[in-house]
Amino acid sequence: MMNKKVPLLLCFLLLLVFHPLKTSAHAVLLKATPEEQSELKEMPDEVSLTFNERLDGEVFDLKVRDDKGEVITKKKAVISKDHKTISLDVPDQPKGIYTLSYSIISADGHPVKGTYIFSVGEKIAGPVSDRNDGFQQGSDAIYNVLLSIVQVCYYLLLLLSVGWVLWKWFIPFQTKENEETYSQKLKGIYLTYMVFLVLSIVVQAMNVLNGSSASQIGTFIFSSATGLSWIISLFLALIGYFLVSKHKGFDFVWAGLVLLVSTLNGHAVATNIPYYTVMLDFIHLITAALWAGGIVYLLLFFKKHREDILLFMPKFSKTALFSLLLLIITGILYTLMIVPNISVIFHTTWGILLLVKVGLVCIVLIIGALVRNALKKNEQTNLKKLLTVDVTLMALIVLIVGIITHLNPIPQNKPLLWKEEQQGMYIVTKTSTLQQGNFAIVVSPSQPKDGSSIQMVTATLTPKGKGKEESIEIPLEKEDSSSYKTSKAVLPYAGEWDLSVRVVTTELDEFIIHKNIQVFDH
Description:
44% of the residues lie in helices and 24% in strands. By secondary structure, the chain is of the alpha+beta class.
């Protein structure tokens, strides 16, 4: 009966991912030359984009188009030695509005696309463009759901497969029949793992390589860390199907390689010190596999193989405690490496889910202590209940891991669209992406109801908690009869700011509105 309930429980947990989650690309545009909405006197010799993390060095594109939509040069963009900047030499061009568009893949396999405009010798009229930085990967809800489901199943089966392969050599099977039953279940888990490995690769490739040419696809698969991880994972899965469980040494090498290769397709390879984060990720995965594989074995075999279980429990209990402690330590160190500062985890779905995961691991530690106590007292009824709770918590943790793997750990700076009414006047404020450095702002107040006119519009930025003496005035020039604009507003540093907009009429009536904004440091 319990064997039937566990799959149902896992299926129920997987249904939770049917709520669409926004999955995000992880490379963030830090610097653009020329900047978004900039008004230049002449076309620069080169346009360039710098991102916060390493990019895939094979599949990227950067184009500049004129106001007729024609590409102004057939030259190819190049990437810097540190793989963080792409640039393109451009010829001299006449006055006009130009569109810069880019498409890159971050080192951890996430696509990023974006577009913005700049001008040469002309004013940019109208509202500030809302640049599409491509922060949302797979914006279609169906794709998001499919990716989440596949990734959750893939990581669950990866951990169980590796865990069961390793534990096979340490379980004190009392009969040959018990060992054969274990091997049969391992075969079933392994086959399902192979299915979801293929599905995981297919679903990722649908998004990563969408729109790429045949040559770009080939280059990505055979040259990028993500592409190589796909090929090697498939190869290891295939040879593992025929050779695992036959030789202890092979199983240990195979398990280590499978987990190591899986770290190449994630956040770990995109940091400034990839070898360090890959090592942390590897330790994190192998300890998770030992814990998850062992706890599922205990629950599935508790009823019919009680003698094997009771002999195995002391060894597993010690290993599980050590594994959980390593999980916590490596998890903390890994998180500190991939986020700019620890406070940002409160501003992303990735961070919130990570906190939930930490809470669940703490509960697992408590359950582990209760399991060891029940084992000492030989309380087998309580032991079975505690194992059921432990498996449930494990499933929840793997569920979270499967989801956050393709969420962005770094909160995104976004454009502002803000409309507020005060004493019958509507004030609409739009900005380009709010980030450290220059940004553009347009304020469009409605006409006063008393028939007067707008005399002046100003904006002010004040850092939170530092007083008005630190305020930065933003002078706005009248663009037309209904809007005031500048493309040279400056945010000197990241943090929490108060943006205030002040409108003064010819009757000297004053309208002031405030907006709290958060600018993140990447």
